[in-house]
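Can't paste images in this forum, so I'm doing it all in text. The chain is below; anyone willing to post the predicted structure tokens underneath?
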Amino acid sequence: MTGGVGQDALREFYGKRFITQMPPDTEILPVSQTIGTDQLVDEMIFRFTHTIRMDWMLPGVSPTGKRVEVPLVAIVRFRDGKLAHEHIYWDQASVLVQLGLLDATALPVAGVETARKVVDPTRPSNALMER
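Text version of the structure:
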């Protein structure tokens, strides 16, 4: 529910809310990329320490100082050689668990395990169902 539509709104979002609100230790670990004629899909692990406001991901949440690792997918579409849209998806529950804002023991959610499973397929599957 963040972002913008149209050149002015996107300039405002990217310039003031997205690019400028990346913690200094942000890391992006590429997992996969699919490229089509007018669209690309990037799957990655997004890692950071929550040391600054991140309105695009955590609106209204003050920095917690906690480390987060979350799978993230970006879908970027082009039209007439220009960016048409960028949709970014992540597991918000996993982020909130890692920040200590959501209790994983009381809900069917997981924390950093979601990111670790993406990069290590030998980790157990179905852990939520087994709880």
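The first strand starts at residue 27 and ends at 35. The chain has a mean pLDDT of 88.
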